Amino acid sequence: MAGVEKTLELKDALYFTAEFLIGFVALSLNSLVVLAIVKNPSLHSTANAFICNLAAADITVGLFVTPSAAMSYMGYPGNFYGCLFISCFVLILTNVSIINLLVIALDRFFAIKAPFLYQKVMTMKKVYCINCGIWLLGINTGLIPMYGWSQPYRELTFCRFIDVIKMEHMVYLQFFGIILTSNIIMFAVYTYICLVVRKHARKIDEMNMRFASQAEIHRATKGYRKQVVASKLVILAVALFICRTPINIFNCISLFCKTCKYPYVLFLCTILLSHCNSCLNPILYAASNSRIKAAMKHLVLQALNIQKEGIQIVGSSSVTLDPFHDLPRPDEGRKSSFKSSEYVAATY
């Protein structure tokens, strides 16, 4: 028994340490993203407002979800409704983050599909309203167990997620209705964006052949650039799928195969993996933008009191998702070549 107790203590210590590290990294990276956007007026664009909202949601995950998961693991709070609220709170922030990822994908689809209409319709006021709607939708879907779709009330002295949340809710609504549906839509959207980028890159290459002296060199490297762009776009949806799916597979096993058993340590690993998504979001969405990345780097250097010359944070124009905002004017077409990578920066 002593050996078993030591194993359990080691497992608990590793789990709590991992939750703390994930929460700290999520809080640090996402706070850096928010500060970089807020403190630089030229980054105040509609696209970056969605990224800032996503980062704010992931900050909340780092502040509350990882400690709440650790509390629930320890069995606190030891009453039914307290345990139910803590469990719902985790679902709320998870849903807000996922819905935000979906909205960012749809926003980019709209910007690529109808760039001029996007510039006309998508104002900052509307973006703020959409961001508020994301939180309201996430809160309402996360609180559904509090409205009645939960396990029957009973006296509890030890809080466990499965004692208050029904697996039917986790599988049918959370997994099939929110996570899986969002992933399918995101895969479809980013696949379309990849196709559009390749199509326009081909046209740009033809333009270079006509107007640029370096067209041959550019054509030799265009295949690599397209592969990089495609991998960046697809990995956004892949990361969400990889992080959120394993824990829901275990939920499906618990619901559809009552007699099936699986290692509890492996289940804890899937919980940690689902929380890791909040650490990956700022890397995949914000750090992929060179201007935000430079602003984040500048903040870190400021915090460390390091002066580095030649850091250019932002330009004079705001960051947009208009796929044609970096295109050369007609009178500049013969003076310089326009590279596919510049088009990619405009659309991504």
From TrEMBL:
<keyword id="KW-0675">Receptor</keyword>
<feature type="transmembrane region" description="Helical">
    <location>
        <begin position="262"/>
        <end position="287"/>
    </location>
</feature>
<keyword id="KW-0472">Membrane</keyword>
<keyword id="KW-1015">Disulfide bond</keyword>
<dbReference type="InterPro" id="IPR017452">
    <property type="entry name" value="GPCR_Rhodpsn_7TM"/>
</dbReference>
<keyword id="KW-0807">Transducer</keyword>
<dbReference type="InterPro" id="IPR001634">
    <property type="entry name" value="Adenosn_rcpt"/>
</dbReference>
<dbReference type="GO" id="GO:0005886">
    <property type="term" value="C:plasma membrane"/>
</dbReference>
<feature type="region of interest" description="Disordered">
    <location>
        <begin position="327"/>
        <end position="348"/>
    </location>
</feature>
<feature type="transmembrane region" description="Helical">
    <location>
        <begin position="50"/>
        <end position="73"/>
    </location>
</feature>
<keyword id="KW-0297">G-protein coupled receptor</keyword>
<feature type="transmembrane region" description="Helical">
    <location>
        <begin position="233"/>
        <end position="256"/>
    </location>
</feature>
<feature type="transmembrane region" description="Helical">
    <location>
        <begin position="79"/>
        <end position="106"/>
    </location>
</feature>
<feature type="domain" description="G-protein coupled receptors family 1 profile">
    <location>
        <begin position="29"/>
        <end position="285"/>
    </location>
</feature>
<keyword id="KW-0812">Transmembrane</keyword>
<feature type="transmembrane region" description="Helical">
    <location>
        <begin position="127"/>
        <end position="150"/>
    </location>
</feature>
<feature type="transmembrane region" description="Helical">
    <location>
        <begin position="170"/>
        <end position="197"/>
    </location>
</feature>
<dbReference type="GO" id="GO:0001609">
    <property type="term" value="F:G protein-coupled adenosine receptor activity"/>
</dbReference>
<keyword id="KW-1133">Transmembrane helix</keyword>
<dbReference type="InterPro" id="IPR000276">
    <property type="entry name" value="GPCR_Rhodpsn"/>
</dbReference>
<keyword id="KW-0325">Glycoprotein</keyword>
<feature type="transmembrane region" description="Helical">
    <location>
        <begin position="20"/>
        <end position="38"/>
    </location>
</feature>
<protein>
    <recommendedName>
        <fullName>G-protein coupled receptors family 1 profile domain-containing protein</fullName>
    </recommendedName>
</protein>
<keyword id="KW-1003">Cell membrane</keyword>
<dbReference type="Pfam" id="PF00001">
    <property type="entry name" value="7tm_1"/>
</dbReference>
